[in-house]
Amino acid sequence: MSAQANYDVLVIGSGAAGLTLALHLAARHRVALLSKQRLRDGSTWFAQGGIAAVLDEMDSVESHIADTLDAGAGLCHPDAVRLTVENSAAAIQWLIDQGVDFTRERGDYHLTKEGGHSHRRIIHSADATGRAVHSTLIERVRAAENIDCFEHHIALDLIRQPDPQKGRFRCAGCYVYNKQSEEVELLQGRAVVLATGGASKAYLYTSNPDGASGDGIAMAWRAGCRVSNMEFNQFHPTCLYHPKAKAMLVTEALRGEGAQLKLPDGNRFMHHFDPRGELAPRDIVARAIDHEMKRLGADCLYLDISHKDGSFVREHFPTVYNNCLQYGIDITREPIPVVPAAHYTCGGVMVDQFGRTDLDQLYAIGETTFTGLHGANRLASNSLLECLVYARSAALHIDGVLDSVQPPRSAPAWDASRVTDSDEDVVISHNWDELRRFMWDYVGIVRTRKRLLRAEHRVRLLQQEIREFYANYRITSDLIELRNLALVSELIIRSALERRESRGLHYSLDYPQLRELAMDTILVPENFADQRQFV
């Protein structure tokens, strides 16, 4: 890529949301697709369970909506839920048309059941659905003439420009760090789409790959966009506990097919916390595991599917089976040691049904966003569905308005003339480690106001150190991610402090009761007013 390039649409992120949107636009528009690593190195590739959709005649749209609303603990926006669910079958058909090979059983697509669902409605490709979807979409994107893919490019900051015709600011592109040349480049477009995923790397233990550093949320906030419900961080109940395993998720579909959670002594315990047992929603299961681990002083608990037929387990869960076998664990014969880990960011950048943010010509889709679908707790396997539905909705809107949008004015090149190379990169690694540790300890599954205030104090001190480092030394990918993670962590902490109740994924020992009125937590940046009026 040259030092400056212009496109119709700039898509930042190469997961299911970004790829889907790019493919929907490629017929008429020139698209740049940015990936901070390889195209496949995002959360989508590692998604195991599947995609929730109304595909069975015994199921219904109303049932799927009801399950989503129930899991969301009063905070789901009904219009967003209905939009997503009503378009679920069409989204799956589009994937099938692209060539995704979903698992069949006796000729029909096999549907499984996960926690919080009242019906079997999870379509999947064995236990590697994300890989099947992601690899197919990547293949389609690489074959598309109008899509230019830029791997190993990290978006740094969005560019705002005044739009005299509308009397407010618009997004005009972004500065991009090229990891291979180690230079900051300029990309501009008539529309910019954030599809950068979530921020689970803010926590010490996570099921997410290294790239989940909240980049899109942080960039949007700095550009003047509101965020909502950042306190709702979903912790997946079951990640493999092993000293050599890194971020290995053990799919919830195991519990959907009869896997049992057990204490170190072999006894089951979930029935003490919820009548649905192992099929309770994720927040309940994660809190139950956390409670039992702390009560017993245990390093982990166990997920056991060894009572099922071995051939069934190997056929339906080949990824989990083979991954565990690498660590000497045969899941057909013994239980899996598991711990909860940060998994999904339910809040994010506020958008409407078309993915529009508060900044003109800036869109956001996928885990980066707050659409109102997930409420206080994401229902299992609704996330990939949200990516598909909102990517198509945003693409249709962009396609409908882009011809009337003027190209942005040329922005100034990145100025690195007053910075030097750092000889103190250890500061970045130490700050990164400290941030993730106090987020885990103070802003985790169970919270108190004292812990949150302590975390708020620490994150602001860290941000001051990061700002000084950022102002004086050359950009690196680690510094970009640390800067974004620290900002998003502050937004999580501030949101958690504002919610004085326990609801969904936010559980406070100081405020254990549920408030009668369910309200979103909305944070407004200082420069928010600039979006609507400038002088």
Automatic annotation (TrEMBL):
Domain of life from the UniProt record: Bacteria
Organism: Microbulbifer rhizosphaerae
PANTHER family per record: L-ASPARTATE OXIDASE, L-ASPARTATE OXIDASE, CHLOROPLASTIC
Keyword field: Coiled coil, FAD, Flavoprotein, Oxidoreductase, Pyridine nucleotide biosynthesis
Pathway of action: Cofactor biosynthesis; NAD(+) biosynthesis; iminoaspartate from L-aspartate (oxidase route): step 1/1
Stretches assigned to the Fumarate reductase/succinate dehydrogenase flavoprotein-like C-terminal domain: 433-513
Catalytic reaction list: L-aspartate + O2 = iminosuccinate + H2O2
EC numbers, comma separated: 1.4.3.16
One family name in Pfam for this protein: FAD_binding_2
Gene Ontology, cellular component aspect: cytoplasm
Family: Belongs to the FAD-dependent oxidoreductase 2 family. NadB subfamily.
Coiled-coil region list: 445-472
InterPro entries for this protein: FAD-dep_OxRdtase_2_FAD-bd (IPR003953), FAD/NAD-bd_sf (IPR036188), Fum_R/Succ_DH_flav-like_C_sf (IPR037099), Fum_Rdtase/Succ_DH_flav-like_C (IPR015939), NadB (IPR005288), Succ_DH/fumarate_Rdtase_cat_sf (IPR027477)
Keyword Zinc-finger recorded: no
GO molecular function: L-aspartate oxidase activity
Protein name per Swiss-Prot or TrEMBL: L-aspartate oxidase
Primary subcellular site in the record, as a coarse category: cytoplasm
Residues in FAD-dependent oxidoreductase 2 FAD-binding domain copies: 8-384
GO biological process: 'de novo' NAD+ biosynthetic process from L-aspartate
